[in-house]
Design brief:
By secondary structure, the chain is α/β, with parallel strands linked by helices. It folds into two domains: 302 residues, NADP-dependent oxidoreductase domain (TIM Barrel, Alpha-Beta Barrel); 67 residues. Helix 3 links the parallel strand 5 and strand 6. Helix 1 packs antiparallel against helix 8 and helix 9 crosses helix 10. The longest helix is centred in the middle third of the chain and has 15 residues.
Length: 401
Amino acid sequence: MGKKLIGRRDFMKSTLAGVGGLFFLPPIDMKQEIKVVEAKGKQKKFVYRTLGKTGLKLPVINMGVMLTDNPNLIRAALDSGVLLLDTAHGYMQGRNEETIGEVIKGRPRDSFFIASKINLPQDRAKGLYTEGATTEEFLRRLDISLKRLGLDYVDILHSHGVSRKESVVYEPVLKAMEKAKKEGKIRFTGISTHMNEPEVIHAATDSKAYDVILTAYNFKQKHYAEVGNAIAKASQAGIGIIGMKAIRGAFQQSPTVKNIKASLKWILQDPNVHTVIPGFTTFDHLETDLSVMEDLTLTESEKMELQKEASLQGSYCQGCRQCIGPCPEKLPIPDLMRAYMYTYDYRNLALAQELILSLNLPERVCEDCSLCRVKCAEGFNVSKKIRDVVRLREVPKEFIA
């Protein structure tokens, strides 16, 4: 498949064409591959892009499975033309991978692709690996994931949740990836990032150690032009680019704009993004995503809606990390804000609780400071949100659906 990539300079020009609003890429002459897919007795024409030098030809929207353990929804996605299922070792304490394993059992191995992720112990406030982040532990977790999935290999394995360039080139992880690839347990190496994305993407590109990058990328990011700049460089180096956090939660708190289709179309206007993995949780979400795959055109009304939503605060944390320095307890505030989004946007209390419990927080959180020193760039009342969401620590797991 041939397509015209937009370069870093052109991307910056197009996104910075006007100051003070949301910007859109100009129409680009892309020679995209269109495939006719038979689904439920109907023929649909889906847009496909090639995932960098991996050579994998994927529809522009695939499935992030993190938010669902409904096997029928996953099965319907595959039957409807989705090819890539994205999961992780830690999702739902492993049940996510187990559910996928049940769905794909008996399906031809060349009829789907699986991406999973492994994360090792980190100091979440600093974004650096800690004791216990070893090659052996990485490979141990990979073996558990393969057993859950019922597979001999995964197509893509990501080093999960990286936010610093030092962690991009962390030797124990690179050794584990190399060993797993030689043993045929993974086909392609990847890295995922939710914050400080430009630094991570540039470091991953320069390292030449990764085949795929999975990154947060959406119009609500204040630094989306920087993210796009880094993505362009990576794509032109042959790295496959997968976008996530395009919708920023399935239940937008915004009272005026809830346009999922427009959010997905916005990220796919960038031809350097090869596919997106929204975490849909209902059959209606699936149908919405399938309709986007047939037509990526952003209408003028959709552009106006995105402009409107871009001006609203919402609950999406930018992950800028400016909040960590002033905090006397050095709390991992971006992660706590992400847990807050999981709670009130995703409506996924189990996922929020799982994240909070992984942070090794002190017994008393945001109770001892008479005045919070943290000033959020987004204007969040940080201490209030933290006190709210850490209450999930006290809720027994069996009470959370």
